[in-house]
Amino acid sequence: MNLSKIKTVFLAVMVTSMAASMVLLPEKSFEASVRGLNMWWEIVFPSLFPFFVLSELLIGFGVVKFMGVLLEPLMRPLFRVPGVGGFAWAMGMASGFPAGAKITARLRQEGHLTRAEAERLVSFTNCSSPLFIFGAVSIGFFHNPKLGFLLALTHYIGNFSVGIIMRNFGKKTTRSKKPPYKRPLLTEALSALHQTRLKNKKPIGKLVGDAVISSIHTLLMIGGFIILFSVVNKLLFHMHITAFLAKLIEGALMIFHLPTSLSIPSIAGIFEITLGSQMTSQIQDATLMQQAIMASFILGFSGFSVQAQVASILAQTDIRFRPFFIARILHGFLAGFFTFIFWKPFEERFLSGQSMSIPVFFQKNSIWWENTLNWLKQFGPLFTIFMLLICIAFYVQTLESKN
Hints:
The chain has helices at residues 3-24, 26-61, 63-79, 85-95, 99-109, 115-124, 130-141, 145-166, 185-199, 204-238, 241-255, 263-271, 273-281, 288-301, 303-314, 322-351, 360-402. The protein has 17 helices and no strands. The chain has one domain. The longest helix is centred in the last third of the chain and has 43 residues, at 360-402. By secondary structure, the chain is an all-alpha fold. Keywords: Membrane, Transmembrane, Transmembrane helix.
């Protein structure tokens, strides 16, 4: 039997087993589905939708091209990507995954990136948002707002390091050179802005409608993956597959001087980032440093749920998924390593003796993220429903105009 047939049989057995387990454990499947749905319409949709629509409009109006010319001297020497990559990087950090992949794929479709440049860019533009790190993980799970600053610092430094490491990816196949600008940089940027706007023949109403519909389609896909992996993770746990896989990595945890009790949270985090982070915070026999290292790894790896979302977005282009997956492994280990390196000064400054108090600036930021998360949980579902209705209205209008 060749490898292709083995793969076919394996996938068939896995899907059949999942279907059977859902029939045998309907209550657990339903609970996991509701949990995933709540996460999507309370947090994910309201927090990502404005960024998705805004990015589509900025690309359509030429603002991204304008920013790309200005950021060219920064992005190309550092990461060997065009200046437009700076927009994807900034939006990815602000809004969280998979916004970076969505914008990178859009830039590739518009012809702003070569395939190798897009693969480099997508490897470091997908990361956790500050809202998730501060609001959900540090405050919601660990009940320690100070920890959010360490997790955010190590997460974004690790992300930057991945970009530096991946800058040499595809070096033999792609020659990345700085374009020869003959005029001042600002003049070139304004010219690029104007030329891009002229090339886009769509009226503003059509551009906005297309941006809304495209964003809704992407978010519906993301919601499906969140619900699916929430169910899969729950079923794997109750079928004791998670415990079996956890036994396999206990040796690796001991090599890094981490307690074996973190094995189950690590497996859960490999599949789904939120559940893994929550379970990590509940391990009693692990120190806070060990919990923070594991949480940093989970945040960096992002989980198969997020990676499946990215894979679905990249499948619409010729961007390969493998470089992104390699980058996620690198990001996970780098984030955990930086957490270990920075832990001692962090502990001495914020967790020891008289240093339990934190600066007013940090306190205000922690409260802001917590209030934002609570606001999303309260009003996010209403926003989601309202925007879905608007999308339906745009879609009906588009169908009527075609007829």
